[in-house]
Amino acid sequence: MGWLEGQVALITGGTGGIGSAIVRRYVQEGARVGVMARNREQLDALQTELGDAVVVIQGDVSSLADNQRAVAQTLEAFGKLDTFVGNAAVFDYFTRLDRIAPEELEQAFQRLFAINVQGYLLGARCATDALRETRGSMIFTLSNSAFYAGGGGILYVTAKHALVGMIRQLAYELAPDIRVNGVAPGATNTPMKSLEGLNKRSQPLNAIPGFEEAAARAVPLQRIAEPEDHTGHYVLLASRKDSSLTTAHIIHSDGGWEIRSAGGR
């Protein structure tokens, strides 16, 4: 028996990096999973790999209609919803405010926040009624950038800080019916993409020369995370038996970033 035996989850951004690792781990733990993402080819590959344990939904998290459809298709396939995992996000490739042209700032802000913040809120809103019926939970992927400067640029760091308040407020508003928590990964070996057109130098994170070595040196545990390193936290927070009194909590999974000076001794 897995930790999530008999449960149903919906995961956004579920086809790459941390997202697909969560999907696979949830299936291993006995859950059935709705997977929402934009890339049809990657969705089809995941469906082929995991079979009837998943239902895949192509959609954009910044769209209300797509979020509604993702919840509806998950309910149609599996009959209920126990956990919503908001995970889809884009990076800003460390772009500083003074490196964004003033005439481009408003559009860049709206595009990044539409995915990284609005996408979470839309998913949460669309999942609320189904989660109330099961007294389920919500889990959101944050970042060490939700607590510390320097892990991204001005738009990404601001958006991730905003999500700390979102988790706390949702936990307050939805109690006692729905638990709301988060996981804050640090640097991870993923191909996370940046917002298109924001920075001409941008490339997938794990394609940056020296990224893995620099990330390892920056934390006391002296290694970069793999996506699978974070998945146990998502399992724990979704577990009805082992996290039934946990809400408004964010688990740090960042190699000890807060005490990073210890790594330089």
Automatic annotation (TrEMBL):
Q: Per its UniProt entry, which superkingdom is the organism in?
A: Bacteria
* One function term, GO molecular function aspect: 2,3-dihydroxy-2,3-dihydro-phenylpropionate dehydrogenase activity
Which E.C. number(s) belong to this protein?
1.3.1.87
Please tell me which top-level EC class this enzyme sits in.
Answer: oxidoreductase
Q: Which residue ranges run through the membrane?
A: none
Give the keywords, sorted: Oxidoreductase
Q: Does the keyword Membrane apply?
A: no
| Pfam families (UniProt xref) | adh_short (PF00106)
- What does the similarity note say? Belongs to the short-chain dehydrogenases/reductases (SDR) family.
Q: What is this protein called?
A: 3-(Cis-5,6-dihydroxycyclohexa-1, 3-dien-1-yl)propanoate dehydrogenase
- Species for this entry: Pseudomonas berkeleyensis
Q: Which gene encodes it?
A: hcaB
